[in-house]
Amino acid sequence: MKICVIGAGYVGLTAGACLSEIGHNVICVDNDKVKINNLKKSIMPFFEPELFEIVSSNLKRRSLSFSLDISDAIKKSDVCFIAVGTPQKADGSCDLSSVFDVAKQIGKSINGYKLIVNKSTSLIGTTEKIKKIIQLETSSDIDVIVNPEFLSQGSAVKNFLKPDRLIIGATSQRAIEIFKKIYSPLLISSERFVVMDEKSAEMTKYASNIFLATKISYMNEIANLCEKVGANINNVKLGMSYDNRIGDKFLNSGIGFGGSCFPKDIEAILSLAKEFNCNLDIVSSVGLVNKNQRKIFLNKILNKFNNNIPNKVFSIWGLSFKPDTSDVRCSPSIDIISFLLDCNAKINVYDPKANNNIKDMFKDKISYFDNPYEALQNADALIILTDWKEFLSPDFNKIKTLLKTSIIFDGRNLYDKNYLLSLGIEYFGIGV
Ligand code: UGA
Prior knowledge:
By secondary structure, this protein is of the alpha/beta class. The chain is built from 16 helices and 14 strands. The chain has a six-stranded parallel beta sheet with strand order 3-2-1-4-5-6, with helices on both faces. The protein has a six-stranded parallel beta sheet with strand order 11-10-9-12-13-14. Helix 8 (about 175-185) links the parallel strand 7 (about 165-170) and strand 8. It is globular.
């Protein structure tokens, strides 16, 4: 099938590359000239496992191409996926202007029947609006459906090619059949392919993301109490996880969630609820607990040094908002670094993939290292902010030798407190 994917961000580029991988002919469009020119040469705009391999192999096979010409791409395609950004406005609400601009462009360029699939995380009612915008520009026959994307950064390719579920909001049988045909190579079982009305599909995306964020904030609150009463959140988590009704995912406490989705989605849904005069007390608490979690972590650092951290040197391991990505959007590392800099502390950082993205923000205010151990030289403490696999079992003796004082603040609960204490390393985790 001939498909164009409009927007070459995490969702669009992954979707475009994976759709070409399963046999379709895909044009990925974006209005960022540098990004498109680089992608034509297989130069990736961000790090995402396995993505480079499938982009370059499908470019070679000519089943994937990149273009700046949205109108041409629409004309050449039977199906158009919308995967542009829906950032947060200053008041917290969801900025849908890029989605609506694309809808207008589709309307202007259309040259016959098209199926339009919206994958951008969009507020409830957006599918309907997209359809109206297109129909203002053309009398061509179209179907507009919504297909929320549930892939996670760091495992995006795997998630796309082996999805837990496929959800579409669609009423047209013709659209449903075309969509099924596109995804048929993924062999998803029929009970995991769910068709519903558009608004419910749009809500499912927000409800899922915010539910996951709720699990994290809940565990962080319990972790904070564990610390006060002398319990260990790692044991509590293990005990809870054997209950099938609870499960073992998204129960890790730490410095809270970041990324371009959870924080933004919470604000968007709160802003929508306000419009409808509807209280969402749990949702607003999830966001507050998350912000507070960073402060609680920073207080541990301040307390340890008796509020005296000017000129103290901190070595930070991990800058990305989660492992296996170079993305630092809304990453806890930004808040932690900003606070420590405001206190005139000195910062050395190491991240396997995200150093450059943090450098764009903090420039020469902090020091960047390509090796985790080099970042420890003469530091007063090590601070762990991302649970990269390579941090799981480091050489603790080397850490102890290189640090000026053997202290670890572990924002991801990677290490066993008693073991570190037995090595003579002072350890501060979350809820342990
Ligand atoms: C999230 C959802 O998990 C995806 O299903 C969704 O498609 C995506 O948002 C989106 O809307 O585009 P993502 O933001 O890539 O995916 O990352 P997550 O794995 O959900 O992690 C989010 C944050 O929660 C990270 O900062 C992570 O460190 C933190 N986290 C995660 C915890 O603090 N504890 C946990 O137990 C799990």
